[in-house]
Amino acid sequence: MPNVHITLAEIKEAHRKAAQLVIIDHFYLPLFDRLEREIADHEKASSLFDRAKAIANG
Length: 58
Known about the structure:
58 residues, mainly alpha, 2 helices
């Protein structure tokens, strides 16, 4: 599997589109949920990195 980097902006755009699809058909709820978790994970990792950086810099 190729190493593909997907940006947070791309995930958020997919999240917006998935939300629109959910309105049309509940079938897309699992996709919407997955994208919500991906965004939360990304934001948590970013926050953890920022905190570690602040601690390391005193």
